[in-house]
Amino acid sequence: MARAKNIQFVVSIAATIISITDGMTVAWSAPMIPYFISENSHIQMTQDQAEWIETCFLIGVIIAIPITAYLTNKLGRKKCLLLAATVLMLCWIAIGCVYKKEYIYVARVFMGMGTNLGFVSVPVYIGEIAQKEIRGFLTSFMQIMVIIGILLMYCIGPFTSFSTPPFLAAGLLMSKLVIFSFMPDTPYILCMKNDVNQARKSLQKLRGKEDVEEELHEIMEAINNDMRDKKGAFKELFVVNRYRNASIIVLVFDFTKLCSCFEVVLMNMHQMLEQAGSVYIKPSSVAIIFAALLLISSLISSVTIDKFGRKIIFFVSSMLTALCLLLLGIFLNLNQKGYNVQAINWIPAVSVMVYAVVFKLGMGTVPFVILGEIYSTRIKGRGIAFCNGFHTLTSLGVFQVYFMLRRAYGIYIHFYIFSFLTVFTAVIIMYFVPETRGKSLEEIQQLLKENVFFKTSKKIDSDCENNIKLITRRNSGFIDKKERLK
User: Fold this and answer.
1) 139/289 Cα distance (integer angstroms)
2) Vertex 107, ends 101 and 111: CA angle to 5°?
3) C-alpha closest to that of 409 among 315, 321, 462, 332
4) How far, in Å, CA of 186 to CA of 205, rounded?
5) Helices marked H in 28-163 — which ranges?
6) Element (DSSP H or E) covering residue 486
7) d(CA 257, CA 322)
8) Which DSSP letter does residue 483 get?
9) Which of 258, 290, 301, 430 has the lowest tally of Cβ within 10 angstroms?
10) Nearest alpha-carbon partner for 81 in 206, 13, 181
11) Tens place of pLDDT for every residue, the chain, 486 residues?
12) 157 phi and psi angles, rounded to 5 deg
């Protein structure tokens, strides 16, 4: 058992190297926008032109949604990750070499496409190679690696030459291509392609043993059950009950995460702290501490998520995150109205630091874990691509709302709004959404066949236990076909 966990640990690390550069990609605009609008920039931009760096990236993500949905099943998870790493590596090299803003815009569009493909493939890959006892732990590696990338960018972006971060990212992606080439594809996708022998070999590598017939049988049964619901294309996400329930759960989690303003804070931290007038510590230093705290919090979350469960960690994290947003909004409001806030000038920096810890403990980790385990194998690529598209479009909306409210009312107003929305949606999740901790992917699919949004969480989990008992009895031959679950 210990050997199997060690093997899955190594494979997951290899899979998530690309997530380091995802973090660098997202955080790159924070130190670079001030650079591009400064007199020292080798590519002069106005504020509006620099903001297009963020917009072009999100446009690339949107363009990639149908491509990603098609490729994740057509090529398989492993090949998609290798393709994403190749695209991102070429984009980083281009950014490090160009001298015109138009080329940077184009590179950022393709970076959005590569990031989308990697973002979808990583949690799917890990969710399908991991045992249920450590699935949450291994899936959380993705977010740990993203934070490492953010920390790297905050540490080197403001203090090194323009070309240093791009070439560092390209080097990491090259190592990803070399190392991950030796890793197996997931047994689920191999079974779905009717390549049972390769699926068996993949399982044997991942579990560190020869006898994997029982688990292989469970995987094949899950695939067969999945194929019975086949309706065609994206239509399945809305007409098949369990897929619809899965999508609603993911979207609610994602919407709550968006309400936390994480991307707004991450991409605009330097400018936001400068406007707040913090005098105790430089914005660039706060950004580094922020990323370091995100990393520490992610590590803590990775070892607690399979112990305490997804929902309770997410709920506690949401309440504390909303409190940090509220405090930050109150300070910025008082500062903008001309009140003397020198005595409490430490609030912005401290709020941002505490926010980093409490956000990443649950809100920044749980949605990605849920994303990797909530969809069945065949529909997973389309489901995650759809939800990623929702996230991207909503992110664009959040940014536009942020820019609009900042110009009309000041920087503080959206913190009030999103603090309230965070609390509201977190309560809905706590009361209605079922817990997935300790359940196999097949057990989760059986759970989702129930109409989960008309029952309390307690009733859902009770029904799930009854269903699992029936499945166990069925596989043991104790009941006949009439008792099988619909």
Assistant:
1) 24
2) 140
3) 332
4) 11
5) 29-36, 47-74, 77-97, 101-129, 135-139, 141-156
6) none
7) 11
8) G
9) 430
10) 181
11) 677 788 888 999 999 999 999 989 988 887 888 888 888 888 888 878 887 887 888 889 888 888 887 888 788 889 999 999 999 999 999 999 988 889 999 999 999 999 989 988 888 898 888 887 787 788 778 888 988 998 898 888 888 888 899 999 999 999 999 999 999 888 888 888 888 898 888 888 888 888 888 888 888 877 776 666 555 556 777 777 788 888 888 888 877 777 777 777 766 666 666 665 655 667 677 778 878 888 888 888 877 877 777 888 889 899 999 998 898 888 888 877 878 777 777 787 788 888 888 888 888 888 877 877 787 767 777 777 777 777 777 777 777 777 777 777 777 787 888 888 888 888 888 887 777 777 777 777 777 776 555 455 555 455 545 544 544 444 444 334 434 433
12) -55, -50
Provide the b/e sequence for 138-148 (b: ≥16 CB within 10 Å). bbbbbbbbbbb
Token match 């707040």: residue? 276
What's the alpha-carbon Rg for the chain, to the nearest Å? Answer: 23
Q: Are 428 and 252 in contact (CB under 8 A)?
A: yes
Encode burial over 52-68: b for 16+ CB neighbours within 10 A, e otherwise: bbbbbbbbbbbbbbeeb
Q: Could you give the 3-state DSSP secondary structure of residue 136?
A: helix
Q: Within its chain, how far is the Cα of 70 from the centroid?
A: 20
The DSSP call for residue 387 is: H
Please give the full DSSP string across 6-47, using - where no structure is assigned. HHHHHHHHHHTHHHHHHHHHHHTHHHHHHHHTSTT-SS---H
Our CA dihedral for 88, 93, 97, 100, rounded to 10 degrees, sits at -10
Residue 11 near residue 3 (C-beta atoms within 8 A): no
What's the length of the chain?
A: 486
CA 193 from centre of chain? 27
Instruction: Round to whole Å and give the CA distance between 103 and 166.
Output: 14
